[in-house]
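Every protein is a chain of amino acids, and every chain bends into a shape of its own. The protein below has been through that process, and both of its lines are reproduced in full.
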Amino acid sequence: MRHLQQDGRASFSELAKALDTNRATVAAHVNALLESGEIRIVAAVHPRVLGLNCLAHVAVQLTGDPVPVLEAMEAMESPVFISQTTGPYHLAAELRMPTLASMYEQTELIRALPQVASVNVTVYERVIRSFFLGAEPKLMDLELDEYDLRLMNLLQRDGRASFAEMAAAVGLSLSACRTRVLKLINANVMQIGAIRRRADTSQAMAFGFGLSTSGIEEAVRYLEGVPGAEFIVKCFGHYNLIATVGVASLGEFNRIAGGLRQLGSVATVDTWLHADIVRERYEKPLDTLVGAIAASQLA
């Protein structure tokens, strides 16, 4: 799973080599994971490409039944991640908006929902690690056309679709399809990885960490050495570092939290369990890109 989170299109042969096993064994396990729904492999288009320049972690404190608030937030387009959490805040979400002003308006809509007691917003300054938010896209060299968009749409639905399947679907030759997909990935326009289903089991827990530090370098080095670290971001607001770590046991969580608290540069460590991940959806409509391409063709 962790290899596929890093590269959702890794071949069975590449995975077998990395795991020191044979191709048939890897193929059987990967196919079983996909067929059971334990993982989905999808492409995520970089938010900058979509004009989403402001990203934030939003923690929501409730006074009553979370269901109406969850339903209202699920109806919003901006959250790519929503979960019910343990601790003083009951919901956590990642919002993506075009500007800081639009982020403010969106969080005020959440704040105005019935049963919302408070909203804590932490704005991302720099993403250090994420399976679905890679390096900044090379926008200066970016020229997308309708074929690129159709390929991106296909990969948002099935990140492991073969080049032959995609070529037939969009009307390109196999080599042209391969060239375009690799160009999109290498330019950081999109990233393809596995999303893991978090079932009601101790074998698939995800914990959030909110850190206040005198400098992030020491904590980042520590977190980058943690095998289950899925997300690390430098931010401003309530915390200056937020991370998400997948663990297989409470013992593993305690070791990670304890290690962070022992770092000299770390002042405080808040933690929360993502008890129920309601939405983890990085696929986005490409309407804005379609409109931009149509406008350029008319010009």
